[in-house]
Amino acid sequence: MTFWLVCIVLTLVVAAMIVAPLLRPAPAATENPDVVVYKAQLAEIDRDLERELLDPDEAERARTEVARRLLAANKAVTTPNKGGGGFVVPALISAIVLGISFYVYRSIGAPGYPDMPLQARLDASAEMRENRPSQAALEAAAPVPPAVEVPDDYRDAIEQLRVIAPTRPDDLEAWSRLAYHEVELRNYAGAVAAQTRVIAIKGDAAELLDRQRLLDLMVVAAGGFVSPEAEDVINTILRLDEGNIAARFYLGTLYNQTDRPDLALRLWRDLVETGDPNNFHVASARAQISDAAFRAGVEYALPETRGPSFAQMDAASDLSPEEQQAMIGNMVAGLANRLATEGGPAQDWARLIRAYGVLGDQDAARTVWTEAQQVFVSSMRSMEILTNAARDAGVLE
Q: Residue 271: which of 260, 282, 284, 256 has the closest Cα?
């Protein structure tokens, strides 16, 4: 209610400032002071003529000149302002100002949106974080990755390993191989279970990379979300290495997913500005930091990335088919190499997917699309960009 009262008062003040000049009374007409002087000069000429100080011809010439000046001065007399005294126009202007103000706010503002103090927002974020689904629930709800084409004998061998490994709970080699091959088959939930067992077998000898690999797998298996169990792994890694890039990236992801983009931006900005751009987690932070900054109300722009633009792609349409294929092929090779070594934002991955579609290489486009999903699965905006590119390239219905 206080907000609306303030808006109404401010709008009325602005309207009053606009119409106040129209309500002022019209000033009275004022006589040009030159008129008085010229009238006095005419009277002086008549007196000089009576006293014979001027001859009649000279007096007539002087009277004619002064009369001309008097006529000109009369035309310059200030006229009254006719704008004062009326209330129709000011009232109409006030109504228009008030109407437009409230219409615009109702259209693009947030009428009826409840006040949310900072503490209430922090509490809501904490509640969201506290009530996150478990790792198992997220894995069950995660989209099924595209099937991987492998030889039947390879798939049969992995099926046998899935049966054998549980019978050997302390066989580190069996569980390590199972974790690796589950990833190859895109069975990320199975890879999480196998990698968890690897760490359990190693115990205190488990390396930081083992836990980092588990964290990667848990987030991918959960569809890009950071579960409470994954958060526990993050905390364990940070206790061992407070500057660990992977843990800091996923902690930022957790904040970003629980309505704290300000904290996500703080973590990711440090990674983006000081980390190695070739690092997977730094590249992932780079791809999502602009969205987090926007939601946090902070202006933050990444340096422009290199690579072929859509304008360059369009320019290829004016070339012959052979020249077009050669031009696009060179651009695609450069872009693919950069993304493989340096990473890049979702827009660049989308360009690569579309470029492979133009070249007719559906397998390559599908492979890039699959890899891009793993990188950007936690960003809805990035996934929308990539999904549109996959449709354009013909690898997604």
A: 282
